[in-house]
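Sanity check

After download, print the first record. It should look like this:
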Amino acid sequence: MLRWLLGGRDVQEPVEEMTNHRIPTRSSRFASAGDDGVVLLWNVQTGERLHELRGHSRPITGIALIPLTYHSQSESCHLLTAASDRTVMIWDLDTGSQIHLLADFQSSVKCLKVIERLDVWLSGADKICVWNNRAELLCKTTCFKDADVSLMIELPKNNIAAVIRKELIIFKLVTSSESHTWEITEMRRLSNHEDDIRALISINDDTFATGSHVGELIIWDALDWSVKGFESHFWNITSQSDKPAEIKISRTPYQHEACIHHLTADRENIFAAIGTGIYVYNLQTKTVIAYQQVAHDSRVLHIAKLPNRQLVSCSVDGSVRLWELQELPPAEPATSGIFSMWGIGKPNKQQTQMAKRKLDCSVLKTLELTGDLIGHSGAVQMFLHSKDHGIVTCSTDHLIILWKDGEKESQLRSKALFHKLEQDDV
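Expected structure tokens:
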């Protein structure tokens, strides 16, 4: 079963504008991994398998890229992989060979985080360990008794946010340039969630967000860790009578599920995958401005915002869908029709309030379905997007599919044919 995809600099889950690299041997690669413990390296342009990385004996639980930096002594990018066999391995992506094997973990590593700016990476399990790129342990936290670390993100000022069940713990990385020693210190525990945290994302330098199993979305200040916004009970929003009809009307077991499975964001909005639906939370107004309660026939597993303003979602039902956030036409205030000309049927207080509410709702938007990628027969776990090469999807049907932009590919073929004809004429 395929569960993981990881791309290079121009093949990734996008939040910001992606860079356009022209080196196909490096920037056009992506990795896939799954429950068999095998990691495969692919060429995203041609679909060619480049390397097969074998070493883990259990399912992959985490994967991360160590990119080339001016600090690094290596001439190639390295890949980090963690598995439920309680090992972490470091691979050379150019040769496909294993460089380091770390096996002294008391529990399996659930997440990996590379901090490129500090030239270190972190592993999250029953403790957080900090490593350099030579796989040397720099420091670690004490052992967590109740549960393991499941999610981590980097925050400003060398801080780290880590999730343990329903708690969000802030750690600080401290390094001494003189003694070359490192320390990781717990700064604060935030217990605002009522249930386990399932999603954790960094939105910008000032803001990050968490989503819980019972549908709580909390927006946090990344500097002082205070709450900037809160939303819950998303399913109640769909009871509004003045919202447009949904794309689908079928009822599924996941339609009223509250769990936030995945989050993504752009500069203005947070997009939340909840049950079968997608909800758009505006950071400025602190309200839900659009939603599709039944965006898929089954649970939505992964969503991402593309640089072209489209939103992509994938589901347990095997579908991959493209969405666009569009403006709703402004609502007109309610009137009493022709009778108001004669002073008959003056609008009452309730009608006035309804008209005012409809005018206020003119700032709301709608999620419009713009594309449907049909090809998988099993749950689509996640996807990657490449600015130049389209979308890559992986599924429980053991397939990896590369989806190309048909119009763009047609133009490229036409240019290649025209160039060939010109050469023949010469």
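If your output differs, re-run the checksum step. Summary of this record's structure: The chain is about 10% helix and 45% strand.
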